[in-house]
């Protein structure tokens, strides 16, 4: 009786062990691949509690989740001969568990090596400006290059490839910073010049409007006075019209020209004196003394010469020209 109980207990324990060995729990994000004595079974076990033969069967579970794989920094030379260091990240997942287990050994390591070589190849075909400004194109090209050797032979799908960081040499960074600074300064100068141009156009339009309406200039002057006096300053600044300054300048030039003309030297005129009549003996001719007749003629001639001298002095005081002076001298000598 005791032997029978012992046998039953042994069979029960053995059955429990075999049952435990034949049960496999597959998660929702996993696929089960069964090998029977090393030979692949065509059926892929889905998620849940699955039974296999306890002797001869071996199950491999493959995760079908998206895996993230970081690519170590890779030193490369761009198409325009710039040395830089680039690191990236790869997102991939298994779409065929059988191929991932049978066709490749340690597929995460294989994906890492493919990513490194593809990254260097793509960077070598691109220039620095494209690498810095058009990363979407570089990422798409990387994904395309990595899809060819991984999807069909290995059963892996590259979902996304992203370049994380680009490390440039120190000299290149200084050169790029100088270029960016010069570009920003150029834009600032262009914007400032554009603003000055627009302001000058507005001021020109305002000046034309004020020139057409003189009252507007007076109102603007009064507004300026109000703005200055609103700050309670003890000094009041009054703008002076430029036209008035030009008027005063024109008047001063005319006055200087007239004074210069008056200060010119005048030619000297000969002194004209009244000749003394000669003395003649007193005797009568036809009832008149001869001396009285000659005195009357001499007096009339002296009176004419005196009138000419007075006219010459008047012309000299009024500023005659040299030609007028010569004509007056000739008349006097005649």
The topology string of helices and strands comes to HEEEEEEEHHHHEHHHEEHH
Cα end-to-end separation? 193 Å
Strand content: 15-25%
Q: Structural class, judged by helices and strands?
A: alpha+beta
Name the helicity range: 55-70%
Q: Could you report the average pLDDT, rounded to the nearest whole number? A: 77
Count helical runs: 10
Kindly report the spatial arrangement of strands forming the biggest sheet. Answer: 3-2-5
Radius of gyration: 62 Å
Low-confidence stretches: 267-296, 320-334
Largest sheet: 3 strands, antiparallel
Number of DSSP E strands: 10
Shape: rod-shaped
Q: Mind explaining what this structure looks like?
A:
This protein has helices at 2-22, 97-102, 107-125, 128-133, 135-154, 170-212, 214-229, 242-262, 290-317, 322-333; strands at 23-26, 30-36, 39-45, 48-51, 57-63, 67-77, 83-94, 156-167, 284-285, 288-289. The protein has 334 residues and is of the alpha+beta class. A three-stranded antiparallel β-sheet has the order 3-2-5. The protein has a three-stranded antiparallel β-sheet with strand order 6-7-8. A two-stranded antiparallel ribbon has the order 1-4. β6 and β7 (83-94) form a beta hairpin. The longest helix is centred in the middle third of the chain and has 43 residues, at 170-212. The relative contact order is 0.06. The model is unreliable at 267-296 and 320-334 (pLDDT under 50).
């Amino acid at each position: 009786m005791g032997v029978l109980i012992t046998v039953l207990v042994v069979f029960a324990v053995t059955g429990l062990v075999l049952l435990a060995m034949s049960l496999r729990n597959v998660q929702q994000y996993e696929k089960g691949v069964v090998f029977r004595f090393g030979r692949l079974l065509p059926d892929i076990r889905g998620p849940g509690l699955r039974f296999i033969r306890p002797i001869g069967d071996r199950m491999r579970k493959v995760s079908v989740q998206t895996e993230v794989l970081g690519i170590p920094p890779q030193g490369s030379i761009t198409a325009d001969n710039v040395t830089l260091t680039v690191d990236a990240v790869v997102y991939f997942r298994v779409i065929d568990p059988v191929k991932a287990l049978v066709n490749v050994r340690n597929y995460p390591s294989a994906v890492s090596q493919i990513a490194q070589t593809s990254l260097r190849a793509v960077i070598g075909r691109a220039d620095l400006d494209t690498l810095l400004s058009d990363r979407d194109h570089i990422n798409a090209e990387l994904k395309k290059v990595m899809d060819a050797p991984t999807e069909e032979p290995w059963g892996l799908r590259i979902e996304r490839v992203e370049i994380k960081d680009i490390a440039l040499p120190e000299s290149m960074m200084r050169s790029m910073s100088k270029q960016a600074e010069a570009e920003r300064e150029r834009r600032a100068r262009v914007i400032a010049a554009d603003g000055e141009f627009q302001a000058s156009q507005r001021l020109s339009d305002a000046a034309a409007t004020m020139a057409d309406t003189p009252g507007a200039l007076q109102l603007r002057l009064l507004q300026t006075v109000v703005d200055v006096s609103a700050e309670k300053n003890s000094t009041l600044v009054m703008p002076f019209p430029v036209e008035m300054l030009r008027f005063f300048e024109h008047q001063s030039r005319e006055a200087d020209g007239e004074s210069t003309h008056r200060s010119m030297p005048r030619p000297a005129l000969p002194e004209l004196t009244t000749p003394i009549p000669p003395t003649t003996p007193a005797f009568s001719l036809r009832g008149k003394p001869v001396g009285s007749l000659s005195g009357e003629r001499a007096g009339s001639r002296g009176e004419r010469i005196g009138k000419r001298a007075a006219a010459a002095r008047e012309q000299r005081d009024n500023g005659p020209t040299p030609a007028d002076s010569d004509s007056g001298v000739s008349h006097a000598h005649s």
